[in-house]
Design brief:
Elements: E1 5-6, H1 16-23, H2 27-34, E2 37-43, H3 49-56, E3 61-66, H4 70-81, E4 87-90, E5 106-107, H5 108-116, E6 128-129, H6 134-145, E7 153-158, H7 167-177, E8 181-186, H8 195-204, E9 211-216, H9 219-225, E10 230-234, E11 257-260, E12 265-268, H10 269-278, H11 298-301, H12 306-326, H13 331-353, H14 363-373
């Protein structure tokens, strides 16, 4: 085996000194660094990554640098820019047509470099866990658990693992491994749009080890309300989940979208503009964040760089929502606040739907409301309803 790689059979230590150091640090180090943090997930090769880093540098913030250049960017942040917020790295080998699979090797140098930077949690470059890849799931968990308590097992899963048929297997495997996890879900659209997915995620968040949710959208705040240690929101749609392999051309770069606060969702800028034209004075289309300063959200689409403008506005709104949801402190109060916000947002969507034929209510809002009003035990497996 290549000495720089950890093969499917696993080993007990990576580097004896590093492993002993890691074993001396309980989960409290990870938890103290990442508790309730809303991370910004950005492509380290993207031209706008510096803006993402700057806007994530705040109380309750942090950055997930993504892609092959993620560690290089992290090293620069730590050693040159003295970035003080949590930094995580996601190599994203599980995406694309040539993606790695769960049984593929882990790169030891990728792990060691994170330890040398003293990042709050080490995220190995694990591959994709497919719909029926039970062996791959076990392989990733076992190898990551063997690396020490500073490592989060990297679970990049087909969303069917949240279905009632498979969820008990997932929860049991993660619980038995006894390791923190960093998890993201594959779906062509919204992985949390199905009722079973929200129920499954909530059940997964009840495991006794820390859970970090990667590549998410506004549901990242819902995850924090239900006990996720930290959650990451992507700067672009392809960083808010990951896509199945497709034989098609892919349709080019995703359209820029921005968070509409009262709707608690990302909406394409073109759609915002078209809908706001019907009632330009409606408060839904005006924003008082530090970026918009009371202007209409329509101005985002006419800015010199709509992608950057949409991100700058959206991240301010998301951190504001996070503060409101977490203000209550205990999880029960947070869940209630999140349920109420989702319910209100769903109603606002329905109002628009009666006047604009192309409008759709995002399914995840109703799913979160259903979970919030359900009094069943959070730790029980999701049930089909």
């Amino acid at each position: 085996m290549n000495p720089d790689n950890l093969g499917p059979e696993g080993v007990s230590v990576v580097n004896p000194i590093a492993a002993r150091t890691a074993q001396g640090k309980p989960y409290s180090r990870i938890e103290s660094a990442l508790a309730d943090v809303l991370l910004v997930q950005a492509d380290a090769s993207d031209a706008g990554v510096d803006v993402a880093i700057e806007r994530s540098d705040r109380l309750g913030g942090g950055i997930v640098l993504t892609g092959e250049k993620a560690l290089q960017a992290a090293e620069h942040l730590v050693r040159s820019q003295r970035y003080q917020r949590p930094i995580l790295v996601d190599r994203s080998r599980y995406t694309g047509k040539n993606r790695a699979l769960a049984s593929d090797h882990l790169d030891l140098s990728w792990i060691e470099r994170q330890r040398r930077l003293e990042l709050p949690v080490v995220i190995p470059d694990a591959g994709y866990v497919g719909e029926h890849d039970d062996a791959g799931l076990d392989s990733v968990l076992q190898r990551c658990a063997a690396l020490g308590p500073d490592v989060a097992a990297s679970l990049f899963l087909h969303v069917s693992w949240l279905h009632p048929d498979k969820l008990p297997r997932l929860v049991d495997a993660v619980t038995d491994a006894g390791t923190p996890i960093a998890v993201a879900f594959e779906h062509a659209h919204d992985p949390l749009g199905a009722k079973y997915a929200i129920y499954g995620l909530v059940a997964l968040l009840q495991i006794p080890a820390p859970v970090i949710l990667l590549r998410c959208d506004t549901s990242s705040i819902g995850a924090l309300a239900y006990g996720a240690l930290a959650a990451a929101v992507g700067t672009r749609s392809n960083l808010r989940h990951f896509y199945p392999i497709s034989d098609g051309s892919g349709g080019g770069r995703p359209k820029p979208a921005a968070v509409v606060e009262r709707l608690l969702s990302y909406v394409h800028l073109e759609k915002i503009d078209l809908t706001a034209q019907m009632d330009p004075d409606h408060p839904d289309w005006h924003c008082d964040c530090d970026v918009c300063n009371g202007q209409s959200l329509q101005q985002l689409g006419s800015s010199p760089d709509p992608d950057i403008a949409a991100f700058l506005h959206s991240i301010e709104i998301l951190y504001r929502i996070r503060r409101e949801i977490l203000r209550g402190g205990d999880l029960l109060t947070r869940r209630k606040a999140w349920t109420e916000q989702c319910s209100h947002a769903e109603f606002k969507h329905m109002e628009i739907d009666t006047t604009h034929f192309a409008w759709e209510v995002p399914p995840y809002l109703g799913r979160w409301v259903q979970r919030g009003k359900d009094t069943s035990d959070f730790s029980l497996p999701a049930q089909a309803r």
